[in-house]
Amino acid sequence: MKFNIKEFKKPKLNSPILVEGLPGIGNVGKIAVDFVIDSLNAEKILEITSPNFPHSVFVNEENLIDLPKIELYYKKGKKNDLLFLSGDIQPLDEESCYMFCETILDIFQKFKGKEIVALGGIGLPRVPEKPKVYCTANEKSIIKKYKTKGLNNQIFGVVGPIIGVSGLLVGLASNRKIPGIIILAQTFGHPTYIGVRGAKEILSVLNKNLDIHLDTKSLDKEIESLEKEMEISSKTLSKLTKVMSTQDKVSYIG
Fold this sequence. Notes:
Elements: E1 4-7, E2 17-21, H1 28-40, E3 43-49, E4 58-59, E5 65-66, E6 70-75, E7 82-87, H2 94-110, E8 115-124, E9 133-137, H3 140-146, E10 151-152, H4 165-173, E11 180-188, H5 196-210, H6 217-253
Parallel strand pairs: 2-7, 2-8, 8-11, 9-10
Antiparallel strand pairs: 1-3, 3-6, 4-5, 6-7, 9-11
Helix pairs in contact: 1-5, 2-4
């Protein structure tokens, strides 16, 4: 199992907190983490590529290709420094995911990391107007620490297994006595849906707990734009269905 790690910086960090947000349901975690990275002008520490990542490339804004990679960023904080794990993909299979999470935990321990916050989505059959936010963890103390208004830890029966890096990273962290919490926001479970509304709710929780003072108003315009696109798509699909239905009736009669 091979992970190629390219280092850009070797910062000295003070008991950092790792915030993970990789692609998943509605890309809620990724949207939230990428927003924080951009808002705080976080700096890249390293990037990871691997044969255990998807066998594809991405076309970038310069019309050139990039290998799939996962990146680690940092930002100095008042009390604890912050690390952010972001990327365009997740490891391909179960074994790769286990080994990737262990690799991240090795890196985190070298920085003398304090705790882990993993982000993700809960898929619903419809778009939630006001997404609820839930949490679970590998120990009760970190739930008490992060418990704020609007964050519900009564998650049993609400979700099934938490699949991928978000779940496994926190699960494996418990073997190393590293506290970890998973924060999940409701979102539409369609594979093409972009869960900005859920991401905004997660950012509200991070604002309260990590003292990062993010202004999330810019996300409101994005939410409005996406919902208009969905409304147009829905109307178009409805018209197309009616046309096809009419055609079916005509050909049946003929």
